[in-house]
Every structure is written in C-alpha cells, then in structure tokens.
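The records we work with from here on pair a chain with its fold. A complete example follows; check for yourself that the lines match position by position.
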Amino acid sequence: MKVALGQFAVQPDWHENLDICFDLIKRAAGKEADLLVLPEGILAQDMADPDLIPKTAQPLDGAFITRLAAETLKYPTLTIAGCLPIPDGKDRFYNTLLVIKNGQIIAQYRKLHLYDAFSHQESRSITAGDSLPPLVEIAGFKVGLMICYDLRFPELARRLVLEGADALILPAAWVKGSGKEAHWDILVKARALENTCYMIAVGECGQRNIGNSMVVDPLGVAIARAGEEPALIMAELFHKRIAHARDILPVLHNRRFLPPKFI
C-alpha cells in the first residue's frame, strides 16, 4: 500500500484549508497513493481564538465535508482520512476522524481520549466518543483509526492490532512544549514496535504544533519523515515486512495478558 502524509498549517478560514486539502489530494493521487492522511482539526485553527470550534464546526452534510467528499470522486483509487469537529446535537462537538472514498464516508471514529493535559482542556467544547474505532480495508491492508492524544494510551493500539490491524493511522495536532517532540517520537515508534504494525502519524505544523509526520515500520524504523514545514511525504507498506517482524519478534503471540475490557 502506498501512503501519503499531507502535513500543513491549518488556517482560521475553512475555505483556505479546503483548497489546501484539494491540492494535497491531487498531488497524492498523482503519486499513485492508495491512502492520504491529513492532520487533526483540518476545518479551522486559530491560536488567538479558543472559541473557534463552536464558531466554525459543521455537520457531516455541511459544505466542507460535502465538497471534500466530492473531490474524491475525481480520484477513485484514493482514500483520504482527516478529522474535524462535528456537532453532537447538544451544543457540543465530537472530534471526528472521517475516512472518505469515492465521494462517500466509509468510516468514522469519535475521539475517545480528550486532551485534558499540559494546561489544555479539550473537554471544554468536545464530547468524548463512546465506541471503539473500526478497522477499514484499504488496498489489502486492515487499518485502525486513532486521533492524537490516543497515542498515549497503548491499550487502544493493542486492541486494534489484536482485532487484525496491519497499520494504525493517527491524525494529530501535537502541541509544542518542553519535551513534547521527544514524546511524539518515542510514542509513535513504541506503538509500532510493541504491536509489530505500521504507524502512520500525521501532525499539523505551524505556530502551535510540531509537524514531524512520520511512517514507522513494524520494527520501529521511521521509513518516512517530515520536519516542521508543510510537506507531502510518501511511504510504501508491505505485508512481508509485518510477517517478518512478527516472525522474529512474536510479542503478540508471547503476551500473557488478555486485552482490557472496554467500558
């Protein structure tokens, strides 16, 4: 499977972000990608306006998602994934990861773990999801869905891999701070290595967030990586690499604990 990671700095105006997404879709399709992963919060971001989410959030049939989905009809072999706030019907919002192909939303996941840490409080406007993310079949790979802060909870990644995930995708807006770049690097690699699966982690860049999108293989090797600037990077995933990793490092077979029960 060929994957493209579209790293960019999300703007306050959703029209600008839609144009950026269109460009990344076109470029990823031109490189024959099967999957394009976009960052977290692709609708709108503004460091100076903490209330931007309630001002800009759109429903699934809103203009942003409708036009984004329509754009995928031009590139029938490409699947795209990115997340944005969706109204929950109670004056709050779900941080929702959407997977879109051929003009249709084929999967969605509402973020389970809200970023109430490091002086941030995502729960101020976001409602936590209450369902485990699905697996999505893309180009012969089973892909599990995660969002940003989920990365710090290894039981979610392990659960998805035990259900059959070959790769995990993680759109993120990883906030800059003391040691935060190291946290990102360690955790993305750890989730891949401890589960002998691929990690496809895409971060927003810009003033607030670190970027540093990367693809890590099942033995913890970063096979593609971006810096702090906007970028489109590519990587190719192989079933034989997963099989090799699980043959020489059979941690999934050797484990002694059952997966935790989801409450």
